[in-house]
Amino acid sequence: MNRGGLYEFVFDPAQVNAALQPIWTSQPELDQIGVFHSHPDHPAEPSVTDASQPYLSGWSNVIVAVHEGKFKEARSWYRETEDSSFQEERILVG
Ligand SMILES: [Zn+2]
Predict the structure, then answer these.
(1) Ligand 1 center–CA 22 separation, angstroms
(2) Which residues touch 47 (CB under 8 Å, ≥6 apart)?
(3) Residue 7 pLDDT exceeds 80
(4) Bridge partners, 62 (sequence order)
(5) Domains of the chain: residue spans and CATH
(6) How close is the Cα of 50 to the center of ligand 1, in Å?
(7) Distance between CA 64 and CA 76 in Å, rounded?
(8) Model pTM?
């Protein structure tokens, strides 16, 4: 959905769970600890829309800024509940 330059997407949590169920079943030693999405031509910071999504609570939320089709940066954000604000967390690779 495009609203004045802002793109939004929606998904059915049941469809996401159905897609992930085979992974949870075949690799129970793995834990899902977060989700990621991109912000085309916008900063890698939680948007007002992100803040309104209860589903984004309790996960690490990696947001990737893509400017003019090219990767700019990735940052990660966490909030415990939908009533708390996102806090940035370090991304460690290795
Ligand atoms: Zn976002």
Answers:
(1) 27
(2) 6, 39
(3) no
(4) 36, 76
(5) 29-89 (3.40.140.10)
(6) 5
(7) 9
(8) 0.80
